[in-house]
Amino acid sequence: MSRLVVALTTMLLVLTGCADSSPPTVVAGRAVSMLYDPGRVGGLPAANGPSGPRGDVPPVTARLGNSDGGQIDRLALLAIDDIEDFWTHHYGQSLRGRFTPVSTLVSYDSTDPNSPAVCGGDVYHLPNAMYCRRADTMAWDRAKFMPTARKYFGDMAINGTLAHEYGHALQAMAHIVNPFTRTLVREQQADCFAGVYLQWVAAGKSSRAQLSTGGGLNHVLAGLIVIRDPVSTPDNPVSVSDEHGTALDRVGAFQTGFDGGAEMCAQIDTGEIRKRRGNLPRSLFDSENPQSDLTIDEGVLSTLTEQLGQIFGLSRPPKLATSGKCPSGHEPDPVAYCPETDTIVVDMPGLQDMSAPTDQSTMGMPQGDNTGLSAVTSRYALAVQSERGVGLESATAALRTACLTGVAQRRMAEPMTLSSGPGLTLAGGDLDEAVTGLLMNGIVASDVDDHTVPAGFTRILAFRSGLHGDIDGCFERFP
């Protein structure tokens, strides 16, 4: 982020041990509709629990070509069997034509220069998973890509990845894409189809896999955001495209399938994506001309709080402290709001760590300065609620906080002039950084005691409602 523009970042953070992170604390509360119900997601109870295979993973069958017989291939084939079982029984309910399993499955080693060609292309140094329509072939890298996805996002990241790839096969079967269909639309549809299948798993209907609607689903969503597959074309069988959509786009498409079913996926087109983005500035979806992120310091936070004062117009703006803790003993992790003194307390080293982009070559969530700045904004949002005299200790307060943070982020997407100079302006990639926090730590959607709701879907939905709404709307939606 520069003084004028929050930097676009596509940097990736290795979330060491994220699959083993502690589940979020759940607090009681209510929302005004089932869509925003903190206790449910996609019609299912929102809860933490086991995610992954049910029982022992069977051996690899002869159906998989070029396999080494290892655990990754066994998990991948188990996922394929499960995905095909689902679509065999549900395809005809929503899609045209007839479901036919993918004819060829191939495993390869991206670290081996002697790996056989896949879909007519060289896969050496191509860690990924893919579906090639012309050859009706699905392939995955068992050496680097799948093990890394599994390490950081759990066993169900394999199911999520292959469910997305199977979505491309479904597009071909149902004839809902053509050679002129934009990659963005293809990818959003595939994300959506993955959501349809994984809702079935989360509902406990799969005999092979299980998925919790809390941490398990959050990690699948995290993997979905960072796992981008190559696009197979006649001229370049395995070319890589970056037009996969923002994190907000991808979670929205996945949720469309999870909540609405396959018929909704088939309806995704450029117009539907544009409608989901609403009136947000195009600059928030611009992935060109990346810049360096700001290092968060007292000057940046001072500018942010002045800007938030202009956005929210409080009669008594909260104070900012960059050390210490609340009189109650509540310590910032890395931020906290102290209602007894109307103060936002920041652990500066912790916030800087949360906001630092890392090596782009690693697999992980998009993180940058707005991961930290959105967290600070959420604590300011608690001060807004305090001035209005509403409760700060409930699931409703947590979602209201996310909504108000979204309102502020929308305002920050356009240049603002402050008494001290130019404000901070969000640009492409910054919403992805906020979504990272919403999924992986939930601070932006937490109450004054740092309690969040278990489903990342619901956190992001509340945040999105603020992006497309206003301050009063947040208080009406989350009373």
From TrEMBL:
Q: Name one Pfam family in it.
A: Zn_peptidase
Q: Which PROSITE patterns match?
A: PROKAR_LIPOPROTEIN
Q: Does the keyword Lipid biosynthesis apply?
A: no
Q: Which residues form a coiled coil?
A: none
Query: What is the annotated signal peptide range for this record?
Result: 1-19
Query: Which keywords accompany this UniProt record?
Result: Signal
Top-level taxon of the source organism = Bacteria
Q: What is this protein called?
A: Peptidase
Give the species this sequence originates from. Mycolicibacter sinensis (strain JDM601) (Mycobacterium sinense)
Provide the organism lineage as a comma list. Answer: Bacteria, Bacillati, Actinomycetota, Actinomycetes, Mycobacteriales
